[in-house]
Structures are given as structure tokens and as C-alpha cells.
Predict the structure.
Amino acid sequence: MPEHTLVGQRVVRIDSQAKATGEARYTADLTLPRMLYSKVLRSPHAHARILHIDTSKAEKLKGVKVVVTGQDAAGVKWGVFRYTRDQELLTADKVRYIGEDVAAVAAEDEETALEALELIDVEYEVLPAVFDPLEAMKEGAPQIHDHAENNINIHVPIEVGDVDRAFQQAHYVREDRFLDREYTYCQTEPYAVLASYDRAGNLEIWTPNASPHTKAKALSNLLEKPLNKVRVRRINTGGAFGGRSDIFPGEFIAALLSMKAGRPVKMVYTREESFTSVRQAHSMVVDSKIGVTRDGRIVASEIKLVLDGGAYSSTGPIATSVPFLVWEETYRLPNARFNGYRVYTNKPVRGMYRCHGRAFHGGLGMQLDMIAEELGIDPLEIQLRNALTTGETQATGSRIISCGLTEALETVAERSGWKEKRGKLPYGRGVGMGANGMMVGFPMGIRGGSAALIKFNEDGGATLISGVVDNGQGNESMVVQIAADVLGLRMEDINLVSADSEVTPLDQGAYSQAATFVSGNAVRAAAMDAREQILDIASDMLDALPGELESKGGKVQVRERPERNVWLGKVIRQALIDNAPVVGKGSYMPKVDQSREWVNNPKGQHAGTFSFGAVVAEVEVDTETGQVKVTNVTGAHDCGLAINPMAVEGQLEGSVASGGVGATLLEEHVWDGGQMLNANMLEYKVPLSVDMPQIVPIIVE
Amino acid sequence: MEKRLIRLLVNGDQHDVAVWPNETLVEVLRDRLELTGTKMGCGEGACGTCTVLVEGRPVRSCLTLAVEVQGKEIVTIEGLAEGGDLHPVQEAFVQHGAIQCGFCSPAMILTGKALLDENPHPTEDEVRRALSGVVCRCTGYTKIVEAVLAAAGEA
């Protein structure tokens, strides 16, 4: 293990002062000269054909500059994959959910834009709609897309081993149905976008995002503009949780309006629009059959998953696969059959949310608990017996290079007092346990890796250029910490330029825990490259071999004789004189099987590495009302080397709020057909400070 | 409807602004005074990210009309650091890792300050209750509560 001076330390994040003082800017805070304000006309119908749109009255309203409809959008369709391009971001022919984008106005102020929406006449032919995925799959259900029979958007079949034989040999088999509700991200920052287009054909975009390069590529396709003309700029993002990754109608429409108006256009969604018209999380129906040995080891599993996908594909194939993948990444599944179906309904579009289907609410772990009870095994024991370990290969062929799941399980059991509490607490109180494993990134072709550059100034300070994006988790600070650690600088000696699709090299974005592993390793490589160049030049200056030198405290010195040293700024100047300026370059591409494909070839190495965790929750049930209160949570996570343990703890604690208390106990959508009844933060209950338990976060490295 | 000229006292500065009678304080602060540190998360008084201090008490600026607070002392997050030094509550948030995406931080910090001004040594329960009007989606609140308690120790 190399010696670290900064990595592993509880450092103050570089972005925290600006955020503590109100100086940090978010998209809605931005204004540009001559900026227009935009509002979107949304479908009041869950399923209808658009017969005619008349925008003439709206266009005549004083202060209105541009009105656009699907007719202006050239019929291009968005989908994350070539085979899932089913969404016109401004629909021309049909609406498929309440809240879908039908027309948009850019005006001198927001009030005028809103007034103009009232003046747009849309003639609809209302069509029968379907809101339940199981109903939507039945013969005779309304067909939402012409290409999708029985409204099946995606079918992912996976089969490993001899499932039928394994079931015959199993000691005990049980079948259960698990349901998981749908959620909304409720990032505190509502969706917003600012688009600015100039005569030279440059489009600039500011919008909360989890990958500037992904947004830029999609807009480049949709607007038929080269990538170097579509510039997604760095901006603070008020939370993502998966809900900023995909491409949304907002940025497309704002770009279209700005291009037509020749002026900047800002669009800020209401909270209701942020609920219904960006992305939501899928609901799941899981039919799970598991066969185990006498001592509770899984020998066979057969799982059918149905996801309510809403009106369009979004991340469809990924969403449909991930529940099975996270199960196979946690437990040994020697013989497994999985059939995942993502089904279209006339509801808002569902995308990725904190590990997609949050599959841990949907089966396997809970079923193991039930089996443990049936067979008289301690739930901790059954988890340990089925938990994957280092060196094993998962069902679909990913080898695990490092796995701390056993340690995480044992640690949470010990720290929570599992043995003393399980089954021994008074009536109305209890403890439960769960485990998880998850891919750190996944194959995304050319957009799966990251690159970084470091340049130096003649005063010895550095500028780090990385595509890394920060949605609040601390990625900006993380890459600076890594670079400073390698270069022997203080974090304040390094300025970061990040998340700008024009300036920074390609980066995969912040999804599926990829940023630290991929972007962080790219930055580390760039810093090591720069260090090598620096030591090389300094070796002449200090008359020593590069291998005898180290970069420390803003100086280069002979390791064994630190009094022989030279100031880093002087080395940088010498490099300039030598016509060899120091520019560090590094990149990282996870070692995954690039031929793996979500639907057609779900086999091979899926991620470079995986992370693992275990949780014990202690709850109290009000035996009169049935209300559950979580009192204590002990969580341990194997995240590899924790760069900044304080930031890692923050992630663990945040997960207990959103996936734990929120998703398990409080949050859910309420519908009347296709109309969401609680698209507001009064009735959609997210956890507050008083709802949260005492949390013990433990890092397993 | 006609605009009205009102005088607002924000962070010690006096501002004369012409506002619509139905204009909310958050709109005036953000759009007219360019104090964008005050956030707007829902516009219906549910998320609390628009919290500012009026006469020392936390108030949801999205549910407050600008004309209601004429002449009252308003403090936004921009007015908290004195002479470039962070307020102890701000400093505690920074040091304890209580800030992730930062969107709720101005409201959390102001709410924490208002609590400590009134009750310099709150219990953890009192801190949790005081902060329960502001939604944070990132932190699970643990480090925010720790930061307010730590600031109480220093104050």
C-alpha cells in the first residue's frame, strides 16, 4: 500500500464554503443579458392523439418571442440505446402521459409565458389508457406504442446453469410475490435549464446533471450539431440520485427556443413538474422462487420481474436488468433463471433511481429471511452462507476482485448487538438485517471511461482538468484530494476545472458509484504522470536519480536527504525553458467485457469492481396503529479505500434516509388513473430530521 | 394591480423596490436583489429551502409577501458571515461535512442560527425538531444535527 498524506483523511470539502455562504450558484440562480423565460404546455390527458395545435393567439401576446410545438422538433426521438429511441422530446402525434410536453413558449417574463400557454389551443382525440403494468401486458390492453405488442418495452432473459434440475434437488423451495412502490427523487433543487445560442452556432447549456458529456452527446444527436458546438457547462447540482442522468425534454426544448429566438432561454420547473415531467422511479412486481439446501444455501432461483416503465424507454434495458444484477452481485446464484419485463403504461417516464429498481426492496434478501425462519436458521447465518466472497464469479460471469461482504455482515451484527437483540426484544420491537452488492460503473462503450489533465503554473500551483461531475456527493473535492496526495501539494494549491463538455476530457459521469473509481483513477494517473515529469526535470537540478526523489510540501527533494530540495515552481520554470512544459495526462477505463450487452448478451465482466454493504435496523411498532419507527441503524459498507471517510459516512447516512426510512416507510405515489395526486412535497412524504434514527456508519475497506 | 414602492431592510442594507402586491419575499430577494443564496424548492411552504430570518425568526419566504415585511429586519445567508469570517454555525457545517449538494444548506444554517440565538444549549431532540421544517435529501441529517450541536458548544 503506497503511503498517503491526504487520501484517507477527513478533509473539509473544497465546495463547502461557497455552499455555506450562499455563493454557490445553481441553474435557476443564473441570468444572462436579454434572457427569456420559458414555460411548457403539458398534456392533460394520459393517452390522446394530437389532432391540431393552434399557437397563433399565443404568438400575438405582447412579450411572447417564440412558441414551439412538436412540428418544430423534426420528429427526432430520444432513447438511451439505439434500439430504445421512442421518445419525441416535444411530442408531435400523441401524448402518452399527463404532464407530457406538448408546446413551449419563450417570453420576456415568466408571467407572460404562463399567460401565453392559456392561449394555445390543442385539439385531442382521447384514447383508452392503461396504468397498471400487469393489465398493460394483457391481450386487448390499449397499445401505447405501435412497435410494442402487449406494451412490452424490454424483455431481458437470463439463464445460468440447470435451473430445473437444481429445483428438483433442493431441500426446500418457496415462492413469493414482492411488490415495491414507485418513488420520486425529490432532489431539493427543482429541474431547471438555461440555454444560450449564438450566431456562430454555439449552444451553451446549464442544467443540473450527472454527466455533461452524456447530455452534450444526446443534444448533439437531437439537434444535429457537432459535439464541439454543444457545450454543457459546469453548474452546481442540488442532488441527483439517478434523476439527472438521462436526457429530458427541458434541455431540448430550451435549446430549441434559444436557437429560434437567438436569445438565452431559462426554464425553471415547478415542484409539480419536477415530480411528473422529468423522471420517476419504477415500481416493481417480483415473483421469486428459490430453492435451498438443508442449511439454507441457494441452489436454484427463478425470478420474474415486471417494471412499470411509464410512457417511454429512458434507461429501459438497464433498469430491467439491474434488479437481477444486484442480486447476483450479493448472493451466490449457481442456477438462475431471470425474466425481466419493462412495460409501457400511461404514466410519467421511469428512469434510474438509486440503483434502479432498488431491488433490495423486491425480494431475495427478504425471502432468505423467510427461509431462515422456516428452516430455523439465524438470518445472519443465512446471509453469510449465501454472501459472495473475494475471488468468486457471479452468475453472469463477473469476477469479484475484492469483497468485504462477510466482514460487513459480521461487523453490523456485532456493533448492533444482533445476537443479544434478535428475537429477544420486547413485543413491538425488533431487529432486521439486509445485505447488498452493487456494480461500480458498467459497460458504456466509449463513454465508460474518464481522462484528466493537470497543468502547472510557474508559481508551483496546478490546475486539474477533469470531466468529473459533482451532484453533492463530493466528487470535485475527491479528485482534488487525490491529485494533491500524489503531487505532495495542499488541496488549496490545486484549482479544479470540471464537468464542462467543451473544456474537460470525456468522462462517464456520476452514476452507479463510478466517479471515485473511474474519474478518481484517471486523475490519479494524470497526477502520477505529472509527478514523473517533475521528478525527471528535478533530477538534473538536484543531481540525483528520479527514483531517489519525492514531491512533498510544494518541493521536490531527495527522499533520504530532504535538505537537498528545489521549489516546485522552479522545476516548472525549468521545464518551460527546456521546452518540456509539465502537463500530466491520465485516463482510466474499467476492465469490463465490452461485448456484454444488456439484452442480447448479458454475460461477461460487468464492472471493474463491486461494492458491498450490510445493515441492521432496529424498529419499534406502535401496536395500536401499526406505525413503524426506525430507532437505530447500523450500516457497514465495503467501498474500497475511503478517500474522505467523512464524505463516505455522509453517503451511508443519506442512504438510510432515502432508501431506508423514505422508500421503505414513507414515500409512495398516489394515483387516480394517470393523474398523480401527491405531486407535491406536502403530501409526498420525504424523511425529515425528526423521522431519522440514530445511525452508526461503518466503513469496511 | 399596481406596483408598490416598499423599503426592505436586508442584511443591514436598505433597499427601495417596486413590487407587485402579490410578489413573494423569495421572488424579491432572488430576482430583484440578486440574493440567490435563498433557494426556492417548492413554492408551497413544504420544503423549507427558502427559509430566511425575519426579526430573528425563521420564515418561509415563499409564503411571505414582500409587502408584509416592510421595515422588518431580514437576514439571508449572504448576511451571516461577518467581515469575511464564517458564522460559527456556517463553520460547523463546513467542518462536520454537513453540506453535500448544498441546496438546503442556507436554510439549514439560518434555522440552526435562529435556534441557537433563542436556545444556546439545545438537546439533540430540540435540534431535530427545530430543523424539521427543512428538507435535506442528501445527508440523512446526521451531520447537520452534529454541526448545530457543535456550534452550540462553541458559541
Chain A touches chain B through 56 residues (CB under 8 Å). Chain A has a mean pLDDT of 96. The longest helix of chain A spans residues 514-542.
